[in-house]
Amino acid sequence: MKNKGVLIVISGFAGSGKGTITKELIKRYDNYRVSVSATTRKPRPMEENGKDYFFVSREEFERMIRENELLEYTEYVGNYYGTPKKYVEKMLNEGKDVILEIEYIGAFNAKKAFNEAVLIFVTPPSVNEVYLRLKGRNTESEEVILKRIKRGQEEAAIIDKYDYVIVNDDIETAIEDIHNTIKCSKFSSVRNGEFVAKLKNEFDEFLKNY
Ligand code: 5GP
Fold this sequence. Notes:
The chain is α/β, with parallel strands linked by helices and 210 residues long. Helix content is 46%, strand content 20%. It has 8 helices and 9 strands.
């Protein structure tokens, strides 16, 4: 029997490098798949429908909610974002490890829906580094940067609810740290409940027949 894959949730401050890490994991290892979210936000230049997001109308998103097609969803800065359930379940059943790159409300809802989900929070080593990385992108005004730092303050308050914290000081190390963390999580007792139950049964049977 093929083992089910792991549902991995990656969150992190803006500028944490979580997007790059996810892309590299997909490129380097065959076991990962990334879930494409649905959103009602308008596409940014260069964004492709079906690749970056499924861009849908509010009506369509609300239909997806009603018909229970989403594993989790949330409203974030005036738009809906959600994870289509079908793809994730199919990939997990095929033994693939599925990555959701989502914010924390969605992360905790995903954990409620999937108790075995592994929650990973990625962060630069300091707040000053968060600021410098946002500034270095040269795409955001000082006002937007400040908004994101404020959002970061909110996020910092709930990091301890994640299973793992990865400090991205060096991107190569962070990629390998996340890969190894996911590998280790496969050995957790929660994920191996069926096997443990089988062993217990075997002991009972063995002693009955001895
Ligand atoms: P952006 O509009 O910048 O692409 O994304 C805004 C926020 O929504 C990011 O924190 C991103 O991680 C989060 N996000 C993207 N997709 C999903 C999703 O499917 N569910 C949830 N809960 N958050 C998402």
